Amino acid sequence: MSLWKLRLSMLGTLAALIGLSTLFFALILNWLGVADLTSAPGLLTLIVLVVFFNLMQWLLAPYMIDSMYRVREADRTRYARLYDMVERLCNRMRVKTPKLMIADLPIPNAFAYGSPLTGSRVAVTTGLLRELEEEEVEAVIGHELGHLKHRDVQVMMFASVLPAIFYLLGYSLLWSSWLGGRDERGGAGALALVGLASIAIYWVLSLFVLHLSRLREYYADRESAVNVDDGARKLSEALAKIVHSTSRAHLARNAQGFSAFKALFIEDPDRAPSSMLAISSVRRLGDQALVKSILSRRITWADRIAELFSTHPNIVKRLRALRELAA
Q1: Are strands 110-115 and 119-125 parallel, antiparallel or unpaired?
Q2: Structure confidence by residue, pLDDT tens digits, 231-285
């Protein structure tokens, strides 16, 4: 996908998300007989609460992530080469240098995160440093710096607020109907119906948010490919190794429970085992042979459906996009 098509697709997805949210919200207000939000203080309070909790999650998430994933700031002496790598890429990409963190996790992965309280951070796992070559680590860091450059944490936080409003609204209306509430047209059944419709809208909007997340991954991949020398090849090999390593039985078991913030990772650890089912016999292949074995895999309808519910693109499609960049 060319750069302008990628940007257009992201803008289109965000515009559709905002437009559909506005349309659905107007329809629900009309259905409930509410002229505007000032005449429905309960509804206005609900929206304020959703925005407030999402803002608090954004501000406090780095502390939660550090605790969940055993993250610590990297020692500058011990990880001097890693610091040099980050600073060199930041200068090239014109990004403010983030804090470099180490996550004590066996799965090879990396993630970018942060908030106004903590500043920007890039974390690499001990598994990543153990499994990948230095040039591949550089490509992964380039990808994560791409997320920071594009402010993906903030973009995705804003996008996730919109479905959350309908989710909370739906369950509030359902509870109200179960407790004997009535709308202006009478009957708890109408409230329950609007509540169910709101939850259905939440699921539809969530698909748009997931699609936007996958597009942001392609965008960050492109930053790595452009700003790292021979970045497309290096990142392809890194992603292939990450998926392959995570798919091993003992690492796949350890990966369970890391899904709370899996959108942060460079590759979804929950999908790695299924991503590698078709190539489980290529464990001893070289780097490029491993990449080619993944690229040769046929994308099934099951793969396409699974991708709809994933924060990350299908690994085959992702490697194909990188191959196009390399060419």
Answers
A1: antiparallel
A2: 999 999 999 999 988 776 344 455 445 555 556 677 766 665 555 544 444 445 6
Q: Tokens 């954004």 belong to which residue? A: 58
Contact 218, 318 (CB under 8 A): yes
> How far is the C-alpha of 229 from the C-alpha of 232, rounded, in Å?
8
Sorted by sequence, the CB contacts under 8 Å of residue 105 that are 6+ apart come out as 69, 70, 125, 126, 127, 254, 258
Q: Where are the domains of the chain?
A: 3-326
Q: Is 144 a catalytic residue?
A: yes
Distance in angstroms (rounded) separating the CA atoms of residues 23 and 36: 14
* Residues 218/321, Cβ–Cβ less than 8 Å: yes
Give me the residue label for tokens 């070289």. Answer: 286
For residue 266 the two structure tokens come to: 């460079």
- Which residue out of 131, 136, 138, 144 is catalytically annotated? 144
pLDDT for 305 equals: 94
**Residue 44: its pLDDT value, please?**
77
When pLDDT is cut at 50, 70 and 90, the band that residue 35 belongs to is: low
Task: Return d(Cα 209, Cα 161) in angstroms, integer.
Answer: 10
